[in-house]
């Protein structure tokens, strides 16, 4: 019984860590993968840097989407790099500032 409880606790911890990789805390707000640009702006404000990376085609090559990176921070020595494809947040990356 104790082994089962420990296994369940470990699985819960791993699941919560995986969920944190897809979110970013901005004050008391949370930004998640799939959020729109205006939602991120409302929750986090203007980024420190904004770079247009390039363009990507949709799944059936019918639409062209811009790829843009926004950088927030440093916050406790960490930069948060948000990658947008079109109007949607696709990736949240954290990196130690140099």
What's the arrangement of secondary structure elements?
Layout: H1 2-20, E1 23-26, E2 29-32, H2 37-44, E3 49-57, E4 64-75, E5 78-85, E6 88-96
Antiparallel strand pairs: 1-2, 3-4, 4-5, 5-6
Describe this structure in words.
This protein is α+β, with helices and mostly antiparallel strands and 98 residues long. It has one domain (2-96): Beta-lactamase Inhibitory Protein, Chain:B, domain 1 (2-Layer Sandwich), CATH 3.30.1450. The chain has two helices and six strands; from the N terminus they run αββαββββ. β3 (49-57) and β4 form a beta hairpin. The longest helix is centred in the N-terminal third of the chain and has 19 residues, at 2-20. The model is unreliable at 13-20 (pLDDT under 50).
């Amino acid at each position: 019984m104790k082994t089962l409880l420990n296994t369940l606790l470990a699985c819960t911890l791993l699941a919560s860590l995986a969920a944190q990789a897809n979110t970013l805390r901005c004050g008391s707000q949370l930004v998640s993968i799939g959020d729109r640009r205006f939602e991120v702006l409302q929750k986090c404000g203007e980024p420190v840097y904004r770079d247009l990376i390039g363009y990507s085609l949709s799944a059936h090559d019918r639409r062209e989407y811009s790829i843009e990176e926004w950088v927030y921070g440093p916050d406790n020595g960490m930069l948060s790099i948000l990658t947008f494809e079109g109007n949607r947040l696709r990736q949240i990356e954290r990196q130690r500032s140099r």
